[in-house]
Amino acid sequence: MDEIIRIEALSKRYAGSDRYALKDLSLSVGKGEIFGLLGPNGAGKTTLISTLCGMIKPSSGDLWFGSLNYRRHSRQIQRQLGVVPQEYALYPTLTAEENLYYLGSLYGLAGRDLAYRIAQGLQRVGLSEFSKKPIKTFSGGMQRRVNLLAGILHQPNVLFLDEPTVGVDVHSKEVIMALLHELNQQGTTIIYSSHHLNEAQHFCTRIAIIDAGSIVVEGKPDELIASVLEATTLENVFIHHTGSQLRDYA
Question: Is 6 exposed, middle or buried (0-12, 13-18, 19+ CB in 10 A)?
Answer without folding.
Answer: middle
